[in-house]
Every structure is written in C-alpha cells, then in structure tokens.
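Reopening: structure tokens for the 2-acetamido-2-deoxy-beta-D-glucopyranose complex, inputs below.
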Amino acid sequence: MHISSKITFIFVLIYFSWNFYIQNGFTNKAIVKEELRLLKEMDEAGSRLEKLLKVEKEHMERLSETMNRATRLRITPNSNNPNNWPHPIPVIVFSCNRPDSVRAHVEKLIMYRPSAQQFPITVSQDCDNESVKKEVEKFGNSVNYVKHPPGESVKIEIPTNLQKFKPYYYISRHYKLALNHIFSNSNNYSSVIITEDDLDIAPDFFSYFSNTRYLLEKDPSLWCVTAWNDNGKPENIDLKSNATLYRSDFFAGLGWMMTRKTWEELEPIWPNGFWDDWMREPVQRKQRQCIRPEISRTGMMKYGKEGTSKGQFFSDHLEKIKVNDLPVDFSQINLDYLQKNEFESRLSLDIRNAVPVDIDDITYPDWKPDYEGMKAIIYYTGRTDFVAKADRLSLMHDFKAGVPRTAYNGIVTCFYKGTRIFLVPDRSKVPGYDSSW
Ligand SMILES: *[C@@H]1O[C@H](CO)[C@@H](O)[C@H](O)[C@H]1NC(C)=O
Ligand SMILES: *[C@@H]1O[C@H](CO)[C@@H](O)[C@H](O)[C@H]1NC(C)=O
Ligand SMILES: *[C@@H]1O[C@H](CO)[C@@H](O)[C@H](O)[C@H]1NC(C)=O
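Re-run output (same inputs, fresh job):
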C-alpha cells in the first residue's frame, strides 16, 4: 500500500470513529451520567456493606470467643470417678420480674452445664411479668418454664405486724410450689439445685455439685451443699485454694443443693414466710451441716441490687464476693475428707498447730506471719468480742440462730494477709451456739 492510501485509510478511520463517538456521546450522555451516579451509589452501598460485614465479623468473633471460653472453662465430668453423681440433678431458677436478670442467669447456666440431660433447667415464676416469660421462651426447649399465680392473687396468712414483709411470704410460697413441682411424681429426681435469677455462676458450678452430691447420700449429718461463701471477699479468701471445701453449721443458700429426702422432710412443715431463717433454727437443722467452698461458685449480678432482702448491704458486701474463675474438675479430687469424722480431725490438727495471735498485732499494717504457711488462731470470748474481731478482719459479724456465718462448731476460718486464720470460741466462756446472740 502506498503511503498516501495509508494516510487516507487512517484519516477515514479517525473520521468515522470520531463521528461514532460524538453521536453516541450526545445520545448517551444522560445515560452515562445516570450510570456514573449508580456506580457511585453502588460504591457507597458497597462500603456500607463492607462496614456491616466488618461489624458482623466482629460480632461472630466475639460470639465464638465466648463459646471457646465456655468450652475451655466448662468441665466435662470424669465418668471414671464413682463419686461423680450419675443421675440427673435438675436446676430450679426462681424468678419474678427481672427479665434481663433471668436472661443473663440462664445464659450462664446453659453455657456451663456439661449436659442438658444431666442438668435440666426449669425457670419458675410467680409474679405476672410477661417480659420474663418472653425471655425464657427465647431459650426454646433448652429450659422448662413453670408459672404460678402471683402471691397477691391468693390469700396468705400474714400477721398484721408483719404486713410490710409481704414479699418474704410470697417467696416462701413460691419455694414450696416450685419444689413440689420439681419433685412431683412424674419426675423421679433424687435431688435439686436451687438458684435465683440474680446469681452469677462460676464455670465449675456443675462440677462442684455433681461431685459433692454423693456426700449428701453417704453422710446423714450433711443436708446441703452451697455454692456461696459469706466471707468470700478477695481479701478474706485464699485465691490459690480454688479446690478447698469446708463443712459449716450455717445454711447460706444462694445457689444450693438438697436431696428429695430432705425436701420430703421439710415440705409438710414448710413455713409461710422467712424460709431460710426457719431452716437455720435448731429444730429444723438438727445439727446438720452444709458443704461450702473457699471461693464462691456463685456471686451477685448487678440485678441483685433490686432484690427483696439485698438492697441495703449489696454494695458493702454481697457485690464483693469473688466468683471462682479458675475452674476445678472436682471429679479429679477425693472429697472424702469432707465427711464428718475426717473433717473434724483435720480441723483439730490444724487448730492444734496454729499459732495464737493477737487481733491488734495481726491487724497492724506491718504484720507478717512468723513463717511461710503459718496458721494463726484468734480466740473470742463472747458475742461482742466476736463482733469486734470479725469487724477487724472485715468478716460478716452477724448470727442466725446463734451461728456466725460460715461457722463450724463456732469456728470461723478465713484468709488474711496470706495467713490462714481460725477465729475460735474460748470454750470456757462460750460453751456452744447461743440462739440469743
Ligand atoms: C416486667 O418487669 C420489668 C422490671 O420490673 C418492667 O420494666 C417491665 O415493664 C415488666 N414487663 C411486663 C410486661 O410486665
Ligand atoms: C427412681 O430413681 C431411682 C434411683 O434414683 C431408681 O432406683 C428407681 O427405680 C426410679 N423409679 C422410677 C419409678 O423411675
Ligand atoms: C486450681 O485448682 C487446681 C486443681 O486443684 C490446681 O491444679 C490449680 O493449680 C489451681 N489454680 C491455682 C491458681 O491455684
């Protein structure tokens, strides 16, 4: 091809292309503009979607972290241990009108229970609060729900001078209804774990109960296992003794277990009000004891502040109780030492070897034990002396039916400045529990 025809060809090509471009350009301008707008919108939508995905991803990550944590902390029982209770132990959750509290509590129970068959959960509600019911229904068939008519709707005999304590009568009634429901003949449960909707739950809560249950069977001088330590503030416990358990004359409640047999004994005489104080009376207790932990397996959630009896000393005390976060597999530990005679002789030995100390010395800021692992003994000679000394150690100083909280045969033990302390009654002055204290 000659150069001139080449140039002509290129010229013609450019001419037609230009024409084509101009024509389309004019007719499509509006469309292009529209397309650009759409593209921009799509881009924006894209980044919105990306943001949403990011949030979702973070949410999923948090969820799987929680699940991993639960799996890591949840304890699957060692079925080789003959003392790990093989039968189902139902959990009954008492609720009234705190929907958020019920949700948070049941979530934890479900998260930490090793098996739904072994620990069936029933939420029992007496008050008419639809929100509570709705929250429970969200758990689907993971939990059972039972509703009783509210206390206000039935005639309860309340002495005129005690009218202001109405809620305590409603609670007693609710306990009776719910426990009768759990132990009704259609179920053949031999025991029950009782919780309240404002309780926090430790990861090894179920391991604790399923491995102490055999003790209630074996030792008739025990009538309950409680997850709660009344003196369980961080400064009063040995945080390293995460597996240590005790016997106590004091009925603490707040996450506890009893047998069907005990319920069958209490049910016919169950009181109209103040059931927990009633259980602490010598005629009901019959010198029986409870197992309790060094580090609580239950604690108070913030919702507890609104509870019936807890308002006043919630922030001073209840809120500070430490919930165990170093899970113990109790099926790996021999708990026979908690039986009456063995526990008694171990404690006597500890007390014989303990070094007497003066409350003024030990509470002095610079005080240190004489040697590592030293155990100390402080005597008390009466009611006021006990109260004063308990206060100095920041322990609970009250009595129920003459029994100080956590006491075993009058002895209250705690951890203080890295030292095991025994507050021991001077038997020449304090012969035994005195109900007038
Ligand atoms: C349930 O109780 C909560 C807290 O007392 C209250 O805020 C809520 O309105 C109640 N819901 C219903 C449906 O009664
Ligand atoms: C109830 O449970 C016990 C064991 O806890 C068992 O021996 C008994 O056969 C059961 N009874 C019924 C009716 O299921
Ligand atoms: C918690 O208890 C387990 C079992 O007794 C023990 O192995 C572990 O060392 C304890 N943790 C701490 C921090 O003491």
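The chain has a mean pLDDT of 90. The chain has two domains: 74-338, 349-425. Marking as resolved unless the reporter disagrees.
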